[in-house]
Design brief:
mainly alpha, Arc Repressor Mutant, subunit A, two-stranded antiparallel sheet, 9 helices, 2% strand, elongated
Length: 204
């Protein structure tokens, strides 16, 4: 999408204000003043402060959700190929892809994970967890029906484990890790959680 130089300036100054103060405490008046525009000029591009925040993060945040859905579909493809024993391996491979995507859009995810209180992205991690749990339970039912999965897990525990996992992954952003360190961190994290899952749900 092509945007004007004026809009680029508003976005850049808005991003810095949000990164420093978070959405709630960010001053729209300061953003407009620092950009050298009137509020009337600002409203020609965005109806309010939240619309500006959304413009800064929506493409990256929504893009990760779409990648996540694609990864979930890839797991169902394993059933058709009779390769469900590679499910944990596939999850780890996609996790590396996700982390690289996050780091390609680091500022946007810094805003979403650390500065989005008061916006629709405030519960972004929770929403990802809900999506994962809902689809994973469908996947597990199919595996169990085919005799390829042993063990059970309650939805409550499933949600808790997945929430802990996703929160840990996004700690890379919260703590400003380098991309290299983040990739090493999540690789070890995947080993830890996969071992835990194998103790509860064993793929056969």
């Amino acid at each position: 999408m092509n945007i004007s130089d004026t809009q680029k300036k508003i976005l850049e100054i808005g991003k810095q204000e949000f990164l420093q103060k978070g959405f709630k405490d960010a001053s729209l008046r300061k953003i407009v003043a620092d950009a050298g525009f009137t509020q009337g000029a600002f409203y020609g591009y965005y109806p309010d402060k939240e619309a500006l925040f959304t413009a800064l993060v929506s493409e990256a945040a929504d893009g990760l959700v779409e990648q996540f859905k694609h990864a979930q579909e890839a797991h169902f493809d394993l059933i058709e190929k009779s390769e469900t024993q590679f499910s944990r391996k596939l999850s780890t491979e996609y996790l590396q892809i996700f982390v690289n995507y996050i780091y390609d859009n680091f500022d946007a995810f810094k805003l979403v994970i650390c500065r989005s209180a008061g916006t629709k992205y405030e519960h972004y991690i929770h929403d990802l967890v809900e999506l994962e749990v809902s689809v994973a339970e469908k996947y597990y039912r199919l595996l169990r029906k085919q005799g390829k999965l042993e063990g059970t897990v309650s939805r409550e525990l499933h949600h808790m484990i997945t929430s802990a996992y996703f929160t840990a992954v996004f700690e890379t952003v919260a703590h400003d890790m380098t991309r290299k360190k983040a990739l090493e961190y999540v690789k070890e994290l995947a080993v830890f959680f996969n071992c835990g899952w194998d103790g509860i749900l064993k793929l056969t």
